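Notes, p. 3: input format for complexes.
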Amino acid sequence: MLEELYQEIILDHYRRPRNRGTTSPVDLHAKESNPLCGDELEVTAKIVDGKIAEVKFDGHGCSISLASASIMTGRLVGKTLSEALNYIENFQKMMRGDVPFGGKELGDLKALEGVLKFPVRVKCATLAWHTAQRGITATFEKPPA
Ligand code: ZN
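Output follows (145 residues plus zinc ion):
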């Protein structure tokens, strides 16, 4: 079962996480944890002209939470905040088993869909996305500088 869960893509992102650290400047920031597993993630982003120019994550957790964060950082770059929120919502729907994500744009995310077979780990896979979602929502509520 574990072999099926820890697929190659997840292990690759876990071993060589993309975009780990903190962006400069920090235009968007959120921190969330998943006490069930002990995952703790912090997501930061740099925003240029209303678009996400860079996303980074830091923290610690299981291979699924870190791999999902690593994959997410690549997916949100280039999107406006509304597009990013929409994308995050689609991913969360997929992880609830509601709707399959469009095949074309799935790519690495396909590996995470496999986590659906292990409901207890779904929170691990969605933690980074939930964190980014909170960070984005908070910037909407903040008055412009
Ligand atoms: Zn976890």
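The chain has seven helices and three strands.
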